[in-house]
From TrEMBL:
Biased composition (Basic and acidic residues): 1-10, 156-167
Organism: Brevibacterium marinum
Keywords from the named record: Aminotransferase, Lyase, Transferase
EC category name: lyase
Cofactors required: pyridoxal 5'-phosphate
Gene Ontology terms for molecular function: arginine decarboxylase activity; transaminase activity
Region described as Disordered: 1-56, 144-167
Ranges that cross the membrane: none
Entry protein name: Arginine decarboxylase
E.C. numbers: 4.1.1.19
Length: 953
């Protein structure tokens, strides 16, 4: 196992130009030469070194570049420096060159502002340059721009200064048009004239001349909410981009080069416009696209309505303005939150349940007045039992809740979305009950969340466990390889039982950050059984929808892509050709399983896309605790599936749902539609900062080790050589997520802690939480998982690094007295993770009398579960006695679920044969929490039939 490669580094920035010649040129010569960045040449270092700690995102690069300039120029101004001093500081010129490109893709001061600063520095006017840089830094920090004389402001600064005083929410609109500098100024002037004090929002234009620049802006500027395409743009950028960003732009174009949604028109310009529109929609589906053309827009509108929201003539600037504001209002709308806020403001008389409503049982009480002091009166004013009027009913929504759910479906790319107020555990049970009937087979990864095991027990489905690859060195599982899933489907086909297989349930991403390729998994499984239903547990992956790269591996995007792909003629042709290879032309018999396993299978064009995803909104996006969503992309939903879903939803949903949770789900959806990309990009970037700090700091890397894809994903499931792709930049990250069977969620940093000498549980509780107040969710015997989220700050990451340094010093101090919980052997010495043994014969599938005699793995959880609840049917057996029985040839059967935390999944389920391997694994665990096991009594074991009958008698 290896940690972060020593030579692995992140992009200094997506915009850094390549190495250039050494400086030392006389001042006169500098003024007469042009650099590759468009400035007059500046002295540069002979090689632009890329610091591994620098960011791969423009959020960090832009901020850090301006901050560095402020620091460097202030130092020069105070010291009375001259040009020779700044000439020696190549970082200043690298920052300016980067910012010149970056500012093209962001609203605000613009490229000319950067050029003016460069000119001031060239002339030695450090004070004036510092003032301009300070105004830019204040804008990025969100602080008030200091008052300065109007005469000292540029036109761009004057407009920017006025905007910064405006408290309204602001966004940016991308315009793609090959226009002159004067034309860009005219557009900005026209925009200012269109603004009205009554508008709810304000926006600024980002104007780029080429298709490449439009894609670069979409990849880097999260403030964009809309894009206006004018057909006059050209294709190739003239900006100096890094290799990484150039490659990312090329990958984006390639993704839509043969888009099935792009009609082939004889007009080349129409094809170019549609291709760019498809590319932008694929990258940022939340962007609204508008076309602004000249003549014959009636004909263009008919040809392009599939992608553009509206088509305008160039003179219809005011109509475009109104459309942009109106669309922003649709995104901003939170129907349920607005309704409950209005309800709280309105006087009412409560003659219903809920004494706490409107503070009735709290306000005026001498004993619980601290309730109001702590939570505030609004919480109580918003509490109500009303399910009519503007507040609606979660069980039968017709108004604000229904609209809020529809907006969430739009945001997450689903056909339908349902809110759940008691967690994803309940969401999983709803989907299982809606889809599965007793005795139907569900294939599920064994290390999934316990709610799936309980749901399978409740439904009476026959459970066929899929084994993920084990990571024995760190005591947790990875994910289930696709060929294992295909092989089991083929086994059911050979046994004549394929029709019984109803659903496949997988966890994407796993607790430890292993991410599947859902589109590939579903496509190849549908090739074997075209009516399969898929449930993707995305409890920890809701954020992924809002980043251009991670989005591609979400269930809803995969379902949409698969539906589009199956509708193409190219797919139909390829499918027919593959079927000729996979079936004997004379007998119609399928080829041997090996042929099916060695090919990338294609689903039939008429396969039904039936996909469900459950997400813990509260885990990775903004929501109160237990706020979750179910997303539905099911082509059969309106043809019978909807009724069964609603029955299941009614079964598990409270008639008294928490309205505060519902309101937070509504607000959380608004947030990710308006700023999700920015928040997720920051989250990923901060995770990379943490990983880099641990790998570079001399004391930290001695004590801790960041696990990478090389540690978490076996080589056969990775094509990408780089073990932390995001550290290499956006293009490498993109390529890995497009090609590898499994990838690692970069927001999750798993740190191996064997060097501390203590186990993960002790490290979590006694060293991180109790001593420093740092909360982590998961540990294993020798690892700790640190997760960044959209609420993580740079200060929080800095604090964690500081704490880890202190702990590393403590653990490396030879005079430090170790506590009694110190490990007496290396933490990595663990018995192998136990595979699922088997269901006992009385609960297992019968071996078929004819055909292959392979024992299929499915078993009856429900019968075993209830057998284990009858006190006369069970006994408690201590571990040493259970081991003695196994060694003597006995076959004990578990009477219930046994779930240690960590690793957090049932090591034993009802009806499972207890083996020595399970006991070895359990004996090595020193976790504080094990559900279903009482150390005083031992394991619950189902008695043999004759024993249980005797006990009952």
């Amino acid at each position: 196992m290896t940690g972060i490669d020593s030579d692995e580094h992140s992009a200094q920035a997506a915009f850094m130009p390549g190495p250039s010649a050494a400086g030392g040129t006389p001042r006169k010569q500098l003024d007469s030469e042009e650099s590759e960045s468009g400035f007059r040449s500046r002295p540069k270092k002979s090689q632009l070194e890329r610091d591994p700690g620098m960011p791969a995102s423009t959020w960090r690069l832009r901020s850090d570049a301006w901050e560095y300039l402020k620091f460097a120029i202030k130092r020069l101004a105070i010291s009375g420096g001259d040009f020779s001093m700044i000439a020696a500081d190549g970082e200043v010129w690298r920052s300016l060159r980067s910012l010149k490109t970056i500012e093209l893709y962001w609203g605000g001061f613009g490229q000319r502002y950067v050029e003016d600063i460069a000119e001031l520095l060239s002339n030695g006017e450090f004070d004036r340059a510092h003032d301009m840089i300070t105004r830019a830094v204040n804008r990025l920090r969100g602080t008030t721009v200091p008052d300065v004389p109007e005469d000292d402001l540029t036109d761009e600064e004057r407009a920017e200064h006025k905007d910064r005083q405006d408290p309204r929410p602001r966004f940016e609109v991308l315009i793609v048009d090959e226009t002159t500098e004067g034309g860009r100024d005219e557009l900005h002037t026209d925009l200012l004239k269109l603004r009205n004090a009554s508008d709810q929002f304000i926006y600024d234009y980002v104007i780029v001349p080429t298709a490449d620049d439009a894609v670069a802006a979409a990849l880097t500027n999260p403030n964009l909410l809309a894009c206006v395409i004018r057909p006059g743009f050209t294709d190739r950028t003239r900006q100096v981009l890094s290799r990484d960003l150039r490659n990312a732009v090329a990958l984006a174009h390639e993704g839509t080069a043969n888009s099935p949604t792009t009609p082939m028109s004889p007009l080349n310009s129409v094809r170019r416009v549609l291709r760019l529109a498809d590319t932008l929609a694929g990258l940022r589906p939340e962007l609204d696209l508008y076309l602004m053309a000249g003549a014959h827009i009636e004909n263009l509108a008919g040809a392009m309505t599939h992608r553009f929201r509206r088509v305008f003539r160039r003179e219809d600037q005011f109509e475009l303005h109104l459309s942009l504001l109106r669309r922003a209002q649709h995104l901003y709308d939170t129907p349920f939150f607005t309704a409950i806020r209005e309800h709280a403001r309105r006087p009412a008389g409560v003659f219903h349940a809920l004494p706490v409503s409107r503070g009735g049982s709290v306000v005026g009480s001498k004993w619980i007045s601290d309730f109001v002091d702590f939570y505030g009166l609004n919480l109580l004013l918003a509490e109500t039992s009303a399910t009519s009027g503007e507040l609606d009913s979660l069980l039968a929504p017709v108004g604000t809740i229904k609209k809020a759910q529809s907006l969430a479906a739009r945001a997450f790319g689903a056909k339908r979305t349902y809110f759940v107020t008691n967690g994803t555990s309940t969401a999983n049970k709803i989907v299982h009950q809606a889809i599965v009937s007793p005795d139907e087979v569900v294939m599920v990864d064994r290390n999934c969340h316990k709610s799936h095991h309980h749901a399978l027990m409740l439904t009476g489905a026959r459970t066929a466990y899929l084994e993920a690859y084990p990571l024995n060195d760190v005591a947790f599982y990875g994910a289930v390889p696709l060929n294992r899933i295909k092989a089991l489907l083929l086994d059911y086909r050979a046994a004549g039982r394929l029709d019984e297989v109803r659903m496949i349930t997988l966890t994407n991403c796993t607790f430890d950050g292993i991410v599947y390729d859902p589109e590939k998994v579903m496509a190849e499984c549908l090739a074997i059984k075209p009516d399969l239903v898929f449930l993707w547990d995305e409890a920890w992956f809701a954020f992924a929808r809002f980043h251009p790269v991670t989005r591609k591996r979400t269930a809803m995007v995969a379902a949409e892509h698969l539906e589009d792909r199956l509708a193409t003629d190219a797919h139909t042709t390829a499918y027919r050709e593959q079927r000729k290879r996979l079936f004997d032309a004379d007998t119609g018999e399928p080829a041997p399983d090996e042929a099916w396993l060695n090919e990338s299978l294609l689903p039939p064009p008429d396969a039904r896309i039936r996909v469900y995803a459950t997400q813990s909104t509260h885990k990775t996006l903004t929501s109160l605790r237990q706020g979750s969503m179910i997303h539905v992309y099911d082509q059969e939903f309106a043809h019978g599936a909807e009724e069964s879903f609603h029955e299941a939803y009614m079964t598990h949903t409270s008639t008294s749902p928490n309205y505060q949770i519902l309101a937070s789900l509504d607000l959380g959806r608004r947030q990710v539609e308006m700023e999700g990309f920015a928040l997720v990009q920051k989250q990923l970037d901060l995770a990379m900062s943490l990983a880099s700090a641990v790998s570079r700091h001399p004391l930290l890397k001695k004590t801790f080790r960041v696990l990478t894809a090389a540690d978490l994903i076996p080589d056969e499931y990775r094509q990408t050589e780089r073990t932390m792709p995001l550290r290499d930049g956006l293009a490498t990250f993109w390529n890995a997520w497009a090609t590898d069977e499994f990838v690692v969620d970069p927001s999750r940093i798993t740190v191996e802690i064997s060097g501390t000498g203590v186990d993960g549980d002790t490290f979590k509780h006694e060293h991180l939480m109790d001593r420093y107040g740092i909360q982590v969710n998961k540990t294993s015997r020798n690892t700790v998982l640190f997760m960044t989220n959209i609420g993580t700050s740079r200060s929080a990451v800095a604090y964690l690094i500081e704490v880890l340094v202190k702990l590393a010093g403590k653990f490396n101090d030879p005079h430090e007295i170790r506590s009694e919980d110190a490990l007496t052997e290396p933490a990595a010495v663990m018995p192998p993770l136990p595979d699922f043994s088997a269901f006992a014969p009385e609960y297992a599938a019968e071996v078929p009398a004819e055909g292959p005699s392979t024992q299929l793995p499915d078993g009856d959880l429900r019968t075993a579960y209830y057998a284990g609840l009858r006190r006369w049917n069970i006994e408690h057996v201590l571990p040493h006695e259970l081991r003695r029985r196994i060694e003597s040839g006995d076959v004990p059967v578990s009477a219930g679920f046994v779930t240690p935390y960590p690793p957090g999944f049932p090591v034993l389920v009802p009806g499972q044969v207890i083996t020595a391997e399970v006991l070895d694994f359990m004996s090595a665990l020193d976790t504080r929490e094990i559900h279903g096991f009482d150390p005083r009594l031992g394991y619950r074991v189902i008695l043999k039939k004759d024993q249980s009958e005797g006990s009952k008698g």
